[in-house]
Prior knowledge:
The chain is of the alpha/beta class. 26% of the residues lie in helices and 22% in strands. The protein is built from 16 helices and 26 strands.
Amino acid sequence: MFLTVLGPLFLCFAQTACGGGGGDGQGASSPIEPTTETQAADLVLRDGSIHLVDRAMSVVSALAIRQGRVLFVGSSEAVEDYIGADTAVIDLEGRTVLPGLHDVHLHPLEAGSFVAGTCATDSEADLLSEEFQAFLLSCAPRQRGNIDWVLGFGHSIVQLLDLPDGVRPVDILDDALPNTPVAFIEETSHSVWVNTAALQLAGIDRYTPDPVGGVIARDRNGDPTGLLLDNAGDLVYELAFLPPTDQLRELHYEGLLWALERIARNGITSMVNARVYTRRGYLDVWRRAEEAGTLTARTILGLWAYPTLGPGESDDDQIERLISLYANDPEALLRVSQVKFYSDGIHLNETAATLEPYALADRLPFPVSPDHRDLNYFDEQRLTRYVQALESAGFDAHIHAIGDRGVRESLNAIEEVIARNGAGVDRRHRLTHVEEVAEADIERFAELGVIADFQLAGDFVLPAPGESADGYLPVREIYDTGARITLSSDWDVSSLSPFVGMQNSLLRAEQSLPSLEAALRAYTIDAAYLMRSEERTGSLEVGKYADLVVLDQDIFAVPIEDIGRTRVLLTLLGGEAVFRDPGF
């Protein structure tokens, strides 16, 4: 009996003391037979319940890792052949192990930004109170980034829509901060609340037309109220970050490191940043993390396709610029291989594109569109043009589509791209959110090979007791067609925890996934397919990267309602610990 240690992290009595049994499932990968001491494992996990998420959904008790890859999966008895004098051994004591989890839609840099989050507003606050005015006054001296703005986030658009007659959102901010431009992102990120100084800097007045994909809320006289929906708000927020100074980049980098720690803490070893604003210098921040060795997850960046072009820029110019940034080394931690488009907005803003007009009761107190069903960031024709060109360069499209018309137009665009570029292309485009889908379009995901990416980690996705989930987020309907389904967080709009998403995917009445196994696959091997990494990650099979998580409870043994409470004890990326719970 002797002590085996791997750095400060792995501590276990090797050989005899770390022994243990465990039944093995069918379909486990064949081991690589060790022939000499130099082929012994670097690390062995044994006496656990290790879910491989292979084709047979095998469960084994032991796993060996060498040089960052899985060397063996099988029984705790058989793994002894892979333990050498320098092998670190973890006795799992029956704990559950999963492949590293994939979150294919989240916003880590934005979530962690120490600039945009200086002033955290409250979605329950009384905006007309003296306390809120005092809070606004306290924000200005706390603003970070050496910029002449006050920036914040967290309020609800409902607070602004429910203000008494005669009170405009802009008035509240002007009373406290009349001379400093103020911009607050709403909790869904689909609107921005600004004061007069910000409107003036952006050149927005009663004569300013609505930008593509955006709406300037106006009062009865046609004057801006200080509420900017969707892309109208993005345009104002861009001003605050230009030019991207060294100080701004440093704060963004610090925020990214903060976010990466939380991502590792939640067992996420692969991810897609769902919106990279290149004008703000965000791509440079990610590249710095890669070069500095601080990137702790396999990452694909989804470059933002700007609906509003820069001065003198054409669509061809933007397409060419996006193509110039393509980088897709499959072994690299950082890849630039997706482009993020918005087809439409969200239902709460009346900006999700719908086939039928919004009901009168759902309409906002100012016109969003002439026919109450119309807003596009990228319409069908423009989206087709972009996807066709970018697909030819190797990019996959990541398309935000929430309303049933937005979904249909996005599917139409991909169908047209298939007709133009040919059916033989290995394309892995996806629609994300997919909240409302016309019945005629349900089968089209499978027919066109389009991935449906759902975010189910928010409480709002669950039907109230006794209510039906039919018609909203049709995850089960699309799953039953044979289409590929992925689950993701949209953090920080919703919880980052994949276990909350798995739990909620099983609590949606008739729109629940059929099993926890299906939910797990949506966060692992199917998500790895979306990231074009299914040959390297997504399951624990011999030769794949040793990306895995150890859990504090067996998610297959607890009630569904308790899955979301699961904590990660250990996260390995390529066999190296990127997170360890202090108690493990």
